[in-house]
């Protein structure tokens, strides 16, 4: 991967760190992936370097089968990894700066510049000899998944305004953040007036466990908890109140037909996530995690599978479980993620789009 420093035209005075791998050779004729760009979208805790194992295994997998490797692109958001802080964030005593809409706008601008300057791709509205829209595959973890959904909606709006340059053909959601919760409310409050009896709690769960879990989730995951990016997450629940809405937009195929995107939803291994949650500094019991957190997350992931029509997948999709993986699937099993990406690419090639 080649490292880049990119300054957005919309945000001068700061730069983003990015990495790109271009297909080898100049002749793309006959390469069904020559018009494909895989974009990796990070969560909050792991920067773009967290995808290195996946990328290495994906390259090795394609070389092993004599297949071309598409263009790969990863980046650190403002304030993350090796990128500069967001220059639009004002000095304040509050820890909050830019929000999800700003992140999505930055991603669009970043890809627009990369497509034109690094890939020498001429979008269809750029005059002169035109090329087909670039095909994007978004590989996302954690908060990267809701960001991908918001980005897709923004791209759909741009396409309706005749501003195409790339379309999203496929998504891989790796243990998406639950975007419509404050996390604390996933657990009953033992100190509320309408709380029932302790005897009604699931086996192995105590009132002390519940209070501790609520306190830990408030401390680590509540939308008001600050992060080094100054990414303000407080409005995320309003932007994406439902797991299964709005649907991921279709795109125009080579023949002008409307095609739904491919979608793969991956969830963590419940037992492994519960085991990791018991470790410091989180220290939430497995009984609590399995009774409340895992069940809520499983239901949310099932909702995500309905973001595309059943017909686009051929049959009702099920959530894939990454065996032995906690929340950071790309870190715990990069080979699994590489294989899933490869499967998506094979499906796109089979589509002929």
From TrEMBL:
Classification via InterPro entries: AB_hydrolase_1 (IPR000073), AB_hydrolase_fold (IPR029058)
Basic and acidic residues composition bias: residue spans: 83-96
AB hydrolase-1 domain span: 38-339
Coiled-coil regions, chain positions: none
Protein name: AB hydrolase-1 domain-containing protein
Domain of life: Eukaryota
Region ranges (Disordered): 72-96
Organism: Dichotomopilus funicola
């Amino acid at each position: 991967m080649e490292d880049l420093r990119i300054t957005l035209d919309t945000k001068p005075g700061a730069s983003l760190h990015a990495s790109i791998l271009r297909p080898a050779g100049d002749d793309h004729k006959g390469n069904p992936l020559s018009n494909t760009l895989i974009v990796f979208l990070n969560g909050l805790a792991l920067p773009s370097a967290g995808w290195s194992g996946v990328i290495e295994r994906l390259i090795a997998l394609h070389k092993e089968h004599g297949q071309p490797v598409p263009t790969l692109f990863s980046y650190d958001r403002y304030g993350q990894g090796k990128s500069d802080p967001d220059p639009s964030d004002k000095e304040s005593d509050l820890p909050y700066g830019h929000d999800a809409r700003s992140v999505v706008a930055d991603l669009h601008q970043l890809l627009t510049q990369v497509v034109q300057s690094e890939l020498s791709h001429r979008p269809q509205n750029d005059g002169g000899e035109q090329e087909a829209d670039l095909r994007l595959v978004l590989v996302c973890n954690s908060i990267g998944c809701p960001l991908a959904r918001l980005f897709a909606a923004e791209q759909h709006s741009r396409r309706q305004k005749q501003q195409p340059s790339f379309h999203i053909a496929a998504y891989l959601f790796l243990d998406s953040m639950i975007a419509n919760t404050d996390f604390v409310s996933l657990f009953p409050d033992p100190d509320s007036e309408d709380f029932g009896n302790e005897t009604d709690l699931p086996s192995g769960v105590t009132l002390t466990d519940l209070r501790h879990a609520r306190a830990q989730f408030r401390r680590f995951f509540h939308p008001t908890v600050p992060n080094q990016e100054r990414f303000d997450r407080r409005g995320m629940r309003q932007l994406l109140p439902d797991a299964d809405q709005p649907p991921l937009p279709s795109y125009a195929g080579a023949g002008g037909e409307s095609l739904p995107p491919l979608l793969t939803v991956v969830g963590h291994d419940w037992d492994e996530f519960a085991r990791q949650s018991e470790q410091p500094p989180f220290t939430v019991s497995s009984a609590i995690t399995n009774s409340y957190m895992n069940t809520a997350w499983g239901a949310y992931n099932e909702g995500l599978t309905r973001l595309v029509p059943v017909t686009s997948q051929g049959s009702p999709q099920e959530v894939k479980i990454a065996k032995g993986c906690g929340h950071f699937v790309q870190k715990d099993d990069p080979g699994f993620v590489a294989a899933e990406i490869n499967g998506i690419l094979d499906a796109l090639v089979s589509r002929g789009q």
